[in-house]
């Protein structure tokens, strides 16, 4: 009888251990699923951002701090053209080149402004010394 009780207790302990392992495995599976879902959403957001970055109209407007209408004015095209380009119509190579030149021009202007500020500081230091 004592052997049967001992065996029953051991079986019960073994079942409880298995239940604990099953619960732990279940929690791990839930965590993995949540992590995979998070990574999937993160990848989708990254893909969306890359697609937006690939859209030259949106990139130009963002870098220059202008609207699509202002971009159209600078390019001398109909005011709806940048909107069409940003929503799927492919701009001509000449339009793409022009927009890239606008970005490069803006970057060059910023660099020139920094040089001017630097030279102004040098001149100020010379006058003060």
Describe this structure in words.
The chain has 129 residues and is mostly helical. 87% of the residues lie in helices and 0% in strands. The protein contains five helices and no strands. The longest helix is centred in the N-terminal third of the chain and has 53 residues, at 2-54. The chain is elongated. The chain starts with a helix and ends with a helix.
What separation lies between the terminal Cα atoms? 105 Å
Instruction: Please mark out the parts with pLDDT under 50 across 5 or more consecutive residues, or reply none.
Output: none
Give the amount of beta strand, in percent: under 5%
Computed CA radius of gyration, to the nearest angstrom: 32 Å
Shape: elongated
| Number of DSSP E strands | 0
How are helices and strands ordered from N to C?
Answer: HHHHH
Indicate the percent of residues in helices.
over 70%
The biggest beta sheet is recorded as:
none
Summarize the structure.
With 129 residues, this protein is an all-alpha fold. It is 87% helix and 0% strand.
Feature tags:
single chain; 129 residues
Write the layout of secondary structure elements.
Layout (H helix, E strand, L loop, with lengths): L1 H53 L1 H9 L3 H8 L5 H6 L6 H36 L1
Helix pairs in contact: 2-5
């Amino acid at each position: 009888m004592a052997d049967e009780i001992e065996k029953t207790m051991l079986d019960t302990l073994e079942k409880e251990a298995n239940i604990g392992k099953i619960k732990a495995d279940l929690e791990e599976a839930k965590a993995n699923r949540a992590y995979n879902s998070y990574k999937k959403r993160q990848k989708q957001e990254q893909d969306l951002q890359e697609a937006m970055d690939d859209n030259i109209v949106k990139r130009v407007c963002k870098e220059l701090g202008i609207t699509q209408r202002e971009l159209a004015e600078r390019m001398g095209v109909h005011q709806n053209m940048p909107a069409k380009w940003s929503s799927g119509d492919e701009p001509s190579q000449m339009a793409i080149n022009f927009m890239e030149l606008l970005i490069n021009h803006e970057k060059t202007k910023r660099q020139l402004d920094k040089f001017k500020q630097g030279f102004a500081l040098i001149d100020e230091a010379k006058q003060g010394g």
